[in-house]
Amino acid sequence: MYNRRKFLKTTSTVAGLVAIAPRTFSKSFLNKNNTGFPIVISTWDFGVAANKEAWKILGTGGRALDAVEAGARIPEADLNNHSVGKAGYPDRDGHVTLDACIMDEFGNCGGVAGMEYIAHPISVARLVMEKTPHVLLVGEGATQFAVEQGFKKETLLTDESKKAWEKWLVTAKYSPVINFENKQSKPGDKYNHDTIGMLAIDAKGNISGACTTSGMAFKLHGRVGDSPIIGAGLYVDNEVGGATSTGVGEEVIRNVGSFLVVELMRQGYSPDAACKEAVNRIIKKKPETAKQIQVGFLAINKKGEYGSYAIQPGFSFAVCNQEKQDLLVSGKSYY
Ligand code: ASP
Fold it and tell me: Labelling 208: which of 83, 189, 199, 241 has CA 20 to 30 A away?
């Protein structure tokens, strides 16, 4: 499990080095061609490693779609990451069920939801997009499709995740609230969620995005969050920009969050102002829950300017471009 306290410390050091003032991010880096791309941005601290992988493709003139797929596979394979891919925490019945989606510059998209036994849902999502006339495959159908496409079936529940689930079973308190990082966070605190959402613009200026998660830990069997839903967990419009989300998926779905962020950017909002407005809509609908849940949006516009906004403090994202391959940024927050 990631130690978020340690991460927050690291973030402030990195922020100090590059003179970043937390809460004021809507940035772009202009490169020698006077554009803000190629660039890739990703949610959370594990976005740094994902971006590095994506950069191998983006930095050598490759396509944004290939970059986000390759990047998202890194946390999916990371056995220390219990909220994405293999080693994700299971649902309350002990099944590890994975959700992912992907979208390219042409508006093509694909997703899988509640898929078991396949370690790289993002790659299956891409094949749903490329090889079927459909957008979303779920459950056994998604696994069956993956196997037909040559993916190996494997056990996704690791010993560590199983132990966490068994510990949870002692009380089996179904409490689908989101843990969020704050000043009270202690080393070793467990967070019951997270998603990697990635947005990339390649050297041609084309945008793609990817989003992958194991969803909420110990969720009801069959529960699907925002992450595999195009428009909720991810949206890309190559004329405007892209957005992705993390946090309580139900609230993001209710507000069609990522589509909303992109549409706001179309109307002229900057990436962080668009994310903020989407957060405000969520809070306006359910003011009573705003202090209990986390939802964060991350967005990039066609110029390569990026920004984020989250309900709670502690949301971070990673940025990678020609100048920096490992920049972690503290997102702006409502509280
Ligand atoms: N959005 C994910 C879900 O609701 C979880 C997260 O990103 O924290 O499944």
Answer: 83
Which residue type sits at 111? G
Q: List, for residues 39-96, the tens digit of each pLDDT value.
A: 999 999 999 999 999 999 999 999 999 999 999 999 999 999 999 999 999 999 999 9
Q: Per residue in 179-206, pLDDT tens?
A: 555 544 443 445 566 899 999 999 999 9
What letters, b where the CB count within 10 A reaches 16 and e where it falls short, cover 140-159? eebbebbeeeebeeeebbbe
Domains of the chain: 27-330 (3.60.20.30)
Closest atom of ligand 1 to 233 CA is 1
- Cβ–Cβ < 8 Å for 120, 76: yes
Mutate to test the pocket of ligand 1, among 44, 213, 220 (most ligand atoms within 8 A of CB): 213
At residue 171, the 3 state secondary structure works out as helix
The alpha carbon of 61 and the centre of ligand 1 are apart by a number of angstroms equal to 32
Expressed in angstroms and rounded, the spacing between residue 231 Cα and the centre of ligand 1 is 14
The CA 86 to ligand 1 mean position distance, Å, reads 16
* Active-site annotation holds for 195: yes
Of the residues 43, 97, 143, 195, only one is catalytic, namely 195
pTM: 0.89
